[in-house]
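This section describes the prediction task in plain terms. A model, or a person checking by hand, is given the sequence of a single protein chain and must write out its three-dimensional structure as a string of tokens. No templates, partner chains or ligands are provided. The sample shown here is typical of the held-out split.
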Amino acid sequence: MNSLSGKAPSSREKRLDTLSAYLNEATALLEVFRSDEVDQRIRTFSQATPDDLFVALEALADIRGAVTVIHGPRGCAASRLRPVLRRGGSGNGEGRFVVTNLTQRETILGADGKLRAAIAAVCRRHRPQVVFVVATPTVAINNDDILSVVNELSEELGTPIVPVFSSGFASKAAIQGSDQVSHSLAKRLIPPFTGPRGEHANLLSIDEPAADRREGERLLAALGLQVNSFPSGAGPDALARAAAARLSVSLNFDTAGYLGEALQRRADVPFLPLPRPIGLQATRHWLEAVGAATGRQDLARQLHGREAVILSPLLEKTPLRGTRVYLSLDPATALAVVDLVRELGGDVAGLSVDHLDRLHLAGLGSLLERIPALQVHVGHGQGFEELNLLRRLKPDLYVGAGGPLVQVARLGIPAVSLAGEPIVGYRGMASFARKAVNALRNQRYVAGLAGGGHPYAAAWFQRSPDWHIKQEVR
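The expected answer:
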């Protein structure tokens, strides 16, 4: 990772060789990352690609006691509604966010004064514990001096004000937004370590559903650890305690890895970059790694043994036996769910992920050993490419976290949505199995939708799914 001295992290493409466009077998994909320099792919047509602003605002949405000031035109604030609509609530439980609503003139000439007035107004009205000021692509153009405004008002108002620089241009991977938020949190809200160490462990959770966060907390507590869970669902006090923790562990190394490494660098808190605890064996591995790092190996083994007994009837039934499953998820989740599907007796027919980079090499290597010919598709928001693949592969079940779910059902394929649904740990495994079984049993629903049409002309599907993916010319 790069130093916290800069105002924002460098792009994922520079740090991790992140790919945002790709389609080929797992074997060929791993060869791409084995080279010293990854050849990037570009799309000559992109259907709908979220940028880092979406992800940054979603990462801030569940921080308690905070107000978010979105510095840009009112259209940029629409991004803040995504977590509200997806989670069925206000995100942070209070719904406090404002937009400076820049006019056309202000997008050209700047609007430092408008930002200053907005911050002062929200501090006066709401008395927040922390104010986040989120830059937008417009600010990246007009070059407003957000840092000067933030530094002056933080001292004047006595309230922590944290800038988050999401330009929309730094990376083609939307997950850059979680790195930008993590960078700002570590730099501005996590104090340097002064000792002594506490008996608590940091559970890093940025975009997981509340049920997954609770499962992670339950498992750590069962090992006898006090849990400091943040930033999602927590306030600035949890960030203040983070520097004194014994260690940090995440529920998703992809979104929280930057924060874990930043905390390790700033406060010397060891970070365990573990795969997601999804499925029986991955959860066991996650627990045993935490147990080994804290001297609780026996407790970890005993806990896994008890939970495995509870799940044994489910595993014996192999509810997905003979089922070909297509996964469309973020990469850390998808690579973990591959194993979960196999534990439940199913096979993976194909994979769509938002991005892929060097963080996923271990998972890709494991995938190559088991399913070397698996089609791996990299594309965030590319519904046409997914549907084209699905028409060719004809899986029995589709598992996604959004995406073209309605259009998938119109192909006659049962679908399970993981948006906002638990998947982590032992309870997540049981929940997923129930949803998958229910979807497979309810075939009449998708049969009724099949043939109902889709938004693409027939000519689109006569092209190969990777028609618009080209290797970048240097």
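For orientation: Residues 87-93 have pLDDT under 50 and may be disordered.
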